[in-house]
Amino acid sequence: MLQRLDSQVAACLKKAAEARERAGDAGDPEQRAYHLRMEGSWTRVAESMAAGDRRDAYIQDQDRHHTEMCLACDGALRMKWARRDREVEQHIYECVACGLERRVTLREESNGEASLVRE
Ligand SMILES: [Zn+2]
Questions:
Q1: Count of domains in the chain?
Q2: What is the tens place of the pLDDT at every residue in 30-70?
């Protein structure tokens, strides 16, 4: 059990590291900011898991699926376009497998967490 949790925490930390890498590679400031926020988000999930707060980790995981999985085929999504207007962020993702586009609107709450508004 503990070992399984450890591997989940490690997986989140790996995601955080990947996001940090992508931020470093991003030429576009909007995309860089997005990846840095993803890094923070993954780091928080890892911390929540390590602290045993499964509820928080679960919610974060749901949010992740909202923005990273294709609804039609479960394929991986890649970001095509992102725009930020004050606390509201709009993303357009494209499925690498079937090409379906997803438009997602996120709102940054006062605690720094991003919540899904609509898609
Ligand atoms: Zn798809």
A1: 1
A2: 888 888 988 888 888 787 777 765 555 555 555 555 556 77
Q: Which helix (H) or strand (E) holds 107?
A: strand 101-108
Residue 76 Cα, ligand 1 centroid: separation in angstroms? 7
- Ligand 1 center–CA 99 separation, angstroms: 6
User: For residue 83, what is the DSSP state?
Assistant: E
Number of continuous H segments (helices) and E segments (strands) in the chain: 3, 4
Averaged pLDDT for residues 97-103: 87
Q: Which domain holds residue 110?
A: 2-118
Distance of CA 116 from the midpoint of ligand 1 (Å)? 20
Cα(66) to centroid(ligand 1), Å: 13
Cα gap 89→83, rounded to integer Å: 6
Question: CA 30 to CA 42: how far, in whole Å?
Answer: 18
